[in-house]
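I am going through a labmate's work and have reached the protein record below. What it holds is a sequence and that sequence's fold in token form. Please read both lines and tell me whether the tokens look consistent with the sequence. Do not assume that whoever made the record got everything right. Thanks in advance; the entry in question is below.
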Amino acid sequence: MEFYRGLDITTNKIPIDERKGVPHHLLGDVDPQNGEFMPLDFCLRVGSVISDNTSRRKIPIVVGGSNSFVLALLADRFDPQINVFDWSLPSSLISSELRYECCFLWVDVSFPLLSDYLMKRVDNARHGNDGS
């Protein structure tokens, strides 16, 4: 959702002034009027950014993304026509080889805590507070 322009508060996009000069690629880069941003779109756009970063000897860090987007990016053979979350599919149809060497960090937050945090962001935005 952070790819789409708008929805800055609900998606918790980091404001430009808080990025401390660190490039954040593709945030708010997709016009929602152009239709849904699909896993294959994610794979192509992010793959291009990763290639650019690694060619400059920079380490790309991919933050967020639904499981289908992450799979599209990382699977060596991604077929957008296959629903990889359909457990009735033969495993031979789903690539388990990765395109990149990577490390996963997973943050698990309880829904009530996440909901409370979101409500505070919305209230702060509505009242013009920066939340600090």
